[in-house]
Design goal:
The complex is a heterodimer. Chain A is α/β, with parallel strands linked by helices. Chain A has helices spanning 54-61, 84-90, 108-118, 124-137, 154-166, 184-201, 212-218, 236-241, 246-253, 294-298; strands spanning 4-18, 25-39, 43-47, 69-74, 77-78, 91-94, 172-176, 204-209, 221-226, 229-235, 304-306, 309-311. Chain A folds into two domains: 6-219, P-loop containing nucleotide triphosphate hydrolases (Rossmann fold); 245-329, no CATH class. Chain A has ten helices and twelve strands. In chain A, helix 3 packs parallel to helix 5. The longest helix of chain A is centred in the middle third of the chain and has 18 residues, at 184-201. Chain B has a single domain, classed as MetI-like (MetI-like fold, Orthogonal Bundle). The mean pLDDT of chain B is 85. By secondary structure, chain B is an all-alpha fold. The radius of gyration of chain B is 25 Å and the shape is flat. Classes of the chains: A alpha/beta, B mainly alpha. Chains A and B meet through helix 2, strand 6, helix 3 and helix 6 of A and helix 10 and helix 11 of B.
Chain lengths: 329, 300
């Protein structure tokens, strides 16, 4: 069937954080033992709260940061062994903030043609033609070619960013919260555009977001990240209908409803997000978990396979004393 | 739908003004910039054409014609700005003096600009150990008073144009380094830098085409500030007798030579002083205007 285009094997990224002038550097595990597989044409939603390591993972995939452990394979080849340019042809990013992702000193034509110039594709005429075609593809008229980003709206800028990402026809696009800086009315346009482009070019997306409604709309599979670990990975329908990990459930409960009389939902998470420099023992989630027992404090859960992914929770591990096969939260 | 193709030929024809047209419009609308560029250009032409424009030899002494008053104080058109205490034509000396001031300002700002920008951008972009070393060097440099060091070096090596240019060029890079480091740190975190890296652009390309254009407006301002700074320092050193040596005409030296007669013949000091003031003002206005014109804000 579908071959995996992107594979992460036990990827970890550890930063060393110094506290104070003479303090000893302490390790901060931004990404911890992450294994993921993306098949061709798939959209994997990556969700989690701020600071859980989503963006660090994106930087590793783009080759902007080297992982401290593990392997990242694109089409079965490790990215460390590929050249900078070869990797750039396969994976391209779309960033969160279109006000910061476009160079304010360059015209739209310069910005969109930069990949062609860096890779030495074609001559000036063929590049100009390619830029026009790509802009048309993302729904921008040719008259924007000579304008600067500051003259455009947020939605238009994000279309420019999409054009820049797609002009080299990559296989994988890392969308790092591509709609969270946009107005709600523009968000749906951009999401539909991304969906249409995916169908037309057979793209594979890693879609990072904290907006669960967006993920449900676009993704085929979802990975839930907590404190640098993927705690649950499942098909989108399974996760939204029957989340297995208590944290997934809390995330789903946290979505605001359009009805203000219902107030802010209670996630029952209680305690604040833990300090990633001193992560909790055992299961990292136990201080906030409503189902935590002493076993969770002492033992780290192992990944248990489930349909379309896995889950890391003692409640679902047959070898654990807490195992409850009928448990759905 | 988002994917609909725009096929209207009329829409294809419509294009906005191109970048050059926009720039021209902004330049012509900026009075300060036009004044600054105008004055600097005029002084530049005067400096280059000094042998043609000067009515007399700036070195020729005529002791019978000492301290002739300028034409607006009752003098003659033979010496429009009068003569100094050795009977040398003041206008000719002023014209040749422009060469010294502009040369020192430009070359000293260029040398220190290259040193300071390279250090500052490297520190801001690479961070870590490079940043630590550069910050240390900046602090060392800031701990030394420019005038004192310049005086000491000139006292050892002797005063001459080359020595003054060299000393100022090697001393005035601190502000370049400080400002360029801070600007680079700011720009480096923008997502377009990450986007260029993800596209596969090399480090020199990222620095030159993504970072430099976005810190260039700060650089322009510092260049003009330091040009003015160097010109004033040369005047100060020459005034103290440690800069350009007589009889070379330099504005600072002219002020110095005129100061003995200041109470009776104030124009000997006022004329070079005012010209110096106008040049420094024009350079600063030029820098200010260039920054305004090239800034991406209010570009519409």
């Amino acid at each position: 069937m579908n071959a995996p285009v992107l594979e992460l094997r036990n990827v970890a990224k550890t930063y060393r954080v110094k506290q104070g002038l003479f303090g000893k550097a302490k390790p901060l595990n931004a990404v911890n033992d992450v294994s993921l597989t993306l098949n061709k044409g798939e959209v994997l939603g990556l969700v989690g709260e701020s600071g859980c390591g989503k963006s660090t993972l994106a930087k590793i995939l783009l080759g902007l940061e080297a992982p401290t452990a593990g392997q990242v394979l694109v089409d079965g080849e490790e990215i460390g062994g590929q050249g900078r340019l070869a990797l750039a042809r396969r994976i391209q990013p779309i960033f969160q903030d279109p006000y910061s992702s476009l160079n304010p000193r360059k015209t739209i034509a310069d910005i969109v043609s930069l990949p062609l110039r860096v890779h030495g594709v074609g001559d000036a005429t063929s590049r100009a033609k390619s830029v026009r075609e790509t802009l048309e593809l993302v729904g921008l008229p040719a008259r924007v070619l000579n304008t600067y980003p500051s003259q455009m709206s947020g939605g238009q800028r994000q279309r420019v960013a999409i054009a820049r990402a797609l002009i080299m026809h990559p296989e994988i696009v890392i969308c790092d919260e591509p709609t969270s800086a946009l107005d709600v009315s523009v968000q749906s346009q951009i999401l539909n555009l991304l969906n249409d482009l995916r169908k037309e070019f057979g793209l594979t997306y890693l879609f990072i977001s904290h907006d669960l409604a967006v993920v449900e709309h676009l993704a085929t599979r979802v990975a839930v990240m907590y404190l640098g670990r993927i705690v649950e990975e499942a098909n989108v329908a399974d996760l939204f209908d029957a989340p297995r990990h208590p944290y997934s459930r809390a995330l789903l409960n946290s979505v605001l409803t359009p009805d203000p009389s219902q107030g802010v939902p209670d996630t029952q998470l209680g305690a604040a997000y833990p300090n990633p420099i001193n992560p909790p023992s055992g299961c990292h989630f136990h201080p906030r978990c409503p189902f935590a027992q002493s076993h969770c404090k002492a033992n780290a859960p192992r990944p248990v396979p489930r349909e379309g992914g896995h889950v890391e929770c003692h409640l679902h591990d047959p070898d654990s004393p807490m195992y409850r096969p009928d448990f759905t939260v | 739908m988002a994917l609909q193709r725009i096929a209207d030929p009329l829409l294809e024809e419509i294009t906005g003004p191109n970048p050059r047209q926009i720039l021209r419009k902004r330049v012509t609308g900026h009075a300060g910039l036009l004044f600054g560029v105008g004055v600097v250009l005029v002084l530049l032409i005067i400096a280059i054409l000094a042998p043609v424009l000067a009515p007399h030899d700036p070195y020729a002494q005529n002791l019978a014609n000492r301290m002739v008053k300028p034409v607006f104080m009752g003098g003659t058109w033979e010496h429009p700005l009068g003569t100094d205490h050795l009977g040398r034509d003041y206008l000719s000396r002023l014209i040749y003096g422009a060469r010294v001031s502009l040369l020192i300002g430009t070359v000293a700002a260029l040398i220190s600009g290259v040193i300071g920008t390279a250090m500052g951008v490297a520190a801001g972009y690479f961070g870590g150990k490079v940043d630590a070393v550069v910050t240390f060097l900046i602090n060392v440099r800031l701990a030394m008073p420019v005038v004192l060091v310049a005086l000491a070096v000139v006292a050892i090596l002797g005063g001459s144009l080359q020595v003054v240019i060299g000393v100022l060029g090697l001393l005035l890079w601190d502000r370049f380094a400080v400002v360029m480091r801070a600007s680079t740190l700011q720009v480096r975190r923008r997502e377009y830098v990450a986007a260029a890296q993800a596209i596969g652009a090399s480090t020199p390309r990222v620095i030159l085409s993504e970072i430099m254009p976005n810190i260039a407006n700060n650089l322009i301002v510092i260049v003009t500030l330091e040009m003015a700074h160097a010109i004033l320092l040369e005047a100060a050193l020459s005034f103290l007798g440690l800069g350009v040596q007589p009889p070379t005409p330099s504005w600072g030296l002219m002020v110095s030579e005129g100061k003995n007669m200041m109470l009776f013949e104030p124009w000997l000091v006022l004329i070079p002083g005012i010209v110096l003031f106008i040049l420094v003002l024009a350079i600063n206005l030029m820098g200010d205007g260039l920054r305004d014109v090239t800034a991406p804000e209010n570009r519409s």
